[in-house]
Design brief:
alpha+beta; 60s Ribosomal Protein L30, Chain: A; two-stranded antiparallel sheet; 3 helices; 7 strands
Length: 155
C-alpha cells in the first residue's frame, strides 16, 4: 500500500473524530520509548455514544462491527495526538484488545472486533496487521456495546 496514511484516510473517505477526553482518573494514552499504549476507546463520536446495548440481545453483530470500527477511529485519533499530529510515525499496530458487551450465549466477539481490525489494515496496510484478543463482558462503561484498546509502535 503506497501513499501517506493521511492520504489513505482521505481516499477512503475516513474522517477521524476529535480525541476523547478521559472519563475518569487516567490519561488517554501514554508513550513509553517507541510504544504508544492507548486506553480503551468506546464507540463514541465527538462525545456522542453511537451504540449502546448488548450483542446477542438488542445489538446485531453488524451494528457491533460498526461500533468497533468507531472505537478504531478513536484509537487512531489518540495515536495521531500522541505522534504530534503525524501518523507517518506509526511503524506498526502491535495489538488490539476488544471487549464486547455480550449476552451469555453470544459467541461472535471476533466478528465484532473485526470492525477495528479491518480498519487498521485499511489505514496502515501491512503495518496494521496485529495481534489481538476479543472477549465478551457482561457490561461495559455507560452501557456501550464495544470497547477497544491498542498498542502501537512509533518512530
Amino acid at each position: 500500500m503506497t501513499g501517506t496514511v493521511e492520504s489513505r484516510l482521505k481516499d477512503l473517505g475516513i474522517e477521524l473524530p476529535k480525541p476523547s477526553a478521559p472519563a475518569a482518573n487516567y490519561i488517554p494514552y501514554t508513550v513509553v520509548g517507541s510504544t504508544v499504549f492507548v486506553s480503551g476507546q468506546v464507540c463514541v463520536w465527538n462525545g456522542d455514544i453511537m451504540c449502546r446495548g448488548r450483542l446477542g440481545e438488542d445489538v446485531s453483530t453488524e451494528d457491533g462491527y460498526q461500533a468497533a470500527r468507531v472505537c478504531g477511529l478513536n484509537l487512531i485519533s489518540q495515536v495521531r495526538e500522541a505522534c504530534g499530529g503525524d501518523l507517518e510515525r506509526v511503524v506498526r499496530v502491535a495489538k488490539l484488545g476488544g471487549f464486547v458487551n455480550s449476552a451469555a450465549d453470544f459467541t461472535d466477539q471476533p466478528e465484532v472486533i473485526n470492525g477495528a481490525s479491518d480498519l487498521m489494515v485499511e489505514v496502515f496496510g501491512d503495518a496494521g496487521k496485529h495481534a489481538r484478543f476479543a472477549v465478551g463482558a457482561p457490561s461495559l462503561p455507560r452501557g456501550v456495546a464495544v470497547e477497544v484498546d491498542g498498542i502501537f509502535e512509533i518512530r
